[in-house]
Amino acid sequence: MDYLQQRNLIRPDSRVTLLGNRLVLIGEKGRQAPVTIDASLDLKGLLKGNRLAMGEVASVPAGKYGKAALTTLGLWASVENSIAGVDNVRAALTLVARGEAPLGIVYQTDATAEAKVEIVGTFPETSHPRILYPVALTATSQASAAALLAFLKSPEAATFFTKQGFSALAPGQGS
To answer: For residue 137, with 0-12 CB atoms within 10 Å meaning exposed, 13-18 middle and 19 or more buried, which class applies?
Structure first.
C-alpha cells in the first residue's frame, strides 16, 4: 500500500487498516494438546523428529512471520533444520491435515478453514510484526468503489470477517 501511495495511485484519505490476523500453531485434530507459546516451549520435542510445516521463510509472508516469531522467542535455532517449507499457507495446512507433519504455523484465518486441524497455540502478537490488511480507493476509482469500501468498514462486514478469524480493526488502528 505504501508503494501505491508513494506513486499517487490511491486516495490517501481513504486508506485504512481494515483487518488483522494472528499467527497460530496447528496440529492434526485431536492429536496434540494445547500449548502455551513462549520461550519455554519445547517445539523440537513436540515435533518428535518430524517436520514443522510453514511457509518458506525467504519468500512466503506467513513463513517470514513464523521465522520472526520463532526467532524472537528463541526457538528458531532448535527447529530451523526441521522446517517443511512450502509455497503457501494452505500447503502447510494440508501437510498437517494429512498427518504428514505433526505441527504447522499458519494464519488463524486459514486454520479455521480446515476441519482436520485445530489451533493448539497462538503466537504472542509481540513476537512478530503485526499482520495487517490495509485498503484504499484507487486514485481513479468510481463512486461505486467508495460504497464498497464503506460496506467493508461496516459492522455488518466486521461480523463476517470476525467469523472468518480476522480481527476487524476500527479506523486508525494498526497503522
So the answer is: middle
